[in-house]
Write a structure and sequence with these properties.
The protein has 587 residues and is an alpha+beta fold. It has 17 helices and 22 strands. The protein folds into three domains: 92 residues, OB fold (Dihydrolipoamide Acetyltransferase, E2P) (Beta Barrel), CATH 2.40.50.140; 260 residues, 2-Layer Sandwich (BirA Bifunctional Protein, domain 2); 126 residues, 2-Layer Sandwich (Gyrase A, domain 2). The chain starts with 17 loop residues before the first strand and ends in an 11-residue tail after the last helix.
Amino acid sequence: MYRTHTCGELNLRDTGKEVILSGWVQRSRDLGGMTFIDLRDRYGITQLVFNMETDAPLCKEARKLGREFVIQASGKVRERSNKNLKIPTGGIEIEVNTLNVLNPSKVPPFTIEDDTDGGDELRMKYRYLDLRRNVMKNSLELRHRMAGEIRKYLDQQEFIEIETPVMIKSTPEGARDFVVPSRMNPGQFYALPQSPQIFKQLLMISGYDRYYQIVKCFRDEDLRADRQPEFTQVDCEMAFAGQEDVLNTFEGLAKHLFQKIKNISFNGPFPRIAFKDAMDRYGTDKPDIRFGMELFELTELTGGHNFPVFDDAEYVGGINAENCAGFSRKQIDNLTEYVKRPQIGASGMVWMKWNEDGSFRSSVDKFYDQAALKKWAEKAGARKGDLLLILAGKRVHTQEALSELRLEMGRRLELLRDDEFAPLWVIDFPLLEWDDETTRFYAMHHPFTSPRPEDIPLLETDPAKVCANAYDLVINGVEIGGGSARIHDGELQKKMFGLLGFTDEQAKEQFGFLIEAFTYGAPPHAGVAFGFDRWVAVFAGSESIRDVIAFPKNNAGRDLMIDSPSELSDQQLGELGIMVDEQGTEQ
């Protein structure tokens, strides 16, 4: 028996018991004739005591132990004289009578503490050590609890969990596919699924009217804090259901998780906001509504004053930072440099202060008089003491830049509280988006999204104005997931493929099986998919999903721990019929 108890369960009620503990040495302290060792396992920390006076040889052995040694210790539980009230086991300690080193350890490359001295790359290279830290353990335990509660809720709603294939046919769904060569079918490839989209629609046609799956998905796209090449979705679909059914059911799931995991209750439905309103008010389709500071537009008030930046702009807008007129020039210049960063791309920023004496001061005073600036303030809903921050340019780009500026001001003014959650639904997305470079439409979500029934006639006359029967769940500015009512009519699906530039032959080659399935009685159906990693990260208060994934990739898509991706041997390449040239390009 390696242990009778874990390092997190003993307390004063166990005083006098003979116990055996096993774990890792967290730290060691030599204090004269006494040595204290904090022993750690997944469940907590227990203090071990060695006394030079009562057992000098054992105490000397204990002083040889280094950090992360794996040891077994047996002894008697006793009350601590100097209690540690910060941990559950802080009232007791183990007076050790037997010590066994199960495995020594090299000195770790970084300190295994909550506030570690290891950088991201180093911790990812030694991820198995990083996972020993409490912050990582807590994230994975949170992930486990959330997955369990999701299953409980969906089981109660009569959903059935069904696995779908991992090696499928490559189909255009928005991102690049990861592909897998087939040895048994030379020159042909499987693709790893970007989502189980087609299969869950087929399951609806098969009669499994409430499906879900906590599933791995794969997308070969550039990475950032909320993206990984492989990620986990909570994938769901409902037959004989529309938008309201999905929103009500999965708003219920969100409320269930908030209650069970965060002990937070929401009274009433989540707010809903149309895509266009979200862009006009927040500059993004995933707004953080924990604070105000909504965008305002000044385009009609700024032209004709011989200020080319505004005169030539499609859109002029800004945000009102309340009670910030006291910002120094250095603070404002710092914000200007922030919006000029390549990630945001603004060419500059105009500011205006409404002083306490009622006067206005602006960086464009020589172009706009006090009367004009007062109109700006009125349009922004400003008051004395407020600061307006204004950008100009193309409408969408400028709104997106203002969204980033708004969030940065929220951070600087400490308006983004980690213990506050503000969920909402964004609805009424455009069905299609036009790309000037390729001169064609692309699906805003995916090719199987249904237009709103009342907009179907516009597919023939003005496709750009068609709204999708689609929706996203957003929490604190993070898109947790989204979905739509699906096209279940074969003719409408063919029309959609045509708008997206597919010939009949291409549509049949890529999706012929789905169109064929529609001819055998496809029910109306709708669904949603949530980014499970993102949801866990939001609940964990983490800015990166890497912090809630056991073995993530870095921003270059590499696993630094196992050094992947890696080259294949010539024998493996030969079996697959693949040649790699000197530049590493497959042929």
